[in-house]
Amino acid sequence: QLQASGGGLVQAGGSLRLSCAASGRTFRNYIMAWFRQAPGKEREFVAQIGWFGGDLYYADSVKGRLTISRDVAKNTLYLQINSLKPEDTAVYYCAAKTETRPTYDYWGQGTLVTVSS
After folding, report:
1. pLDDT tens readout for residues 96-115
2. What's the CA gap between 77 and 88, in Å, rounded?
3. Is the dihedral of CA 42, 36, 104, 110 positive or negative?
């Protein structure tokens, strides 16, 4: 139901925009987020956006370089990543949950971002 795309191989300093297309249901009223998992590391939170486009939260490690956004009409979530660093190399996952749930219930399959130095 969530399909992430947009990953690839990029040189350090470059930019990428990841997309997460929802299908099968609308996530209009869901909180959506991006997580990432680097090789050999646990999955970590990257950014979150509320159902109305507000309530933005970012991990301290990515503040200022990443922008999360959503297009409700297109049922699509985005993550703009600028000034890419080798440490940004990871599989990026999109996720969704309702406001009342403590955990994310819906996950995309992930898209790989590889940053070369």
Report:
1. 998 888 899 999 999 999 99
2. 19
3. negative
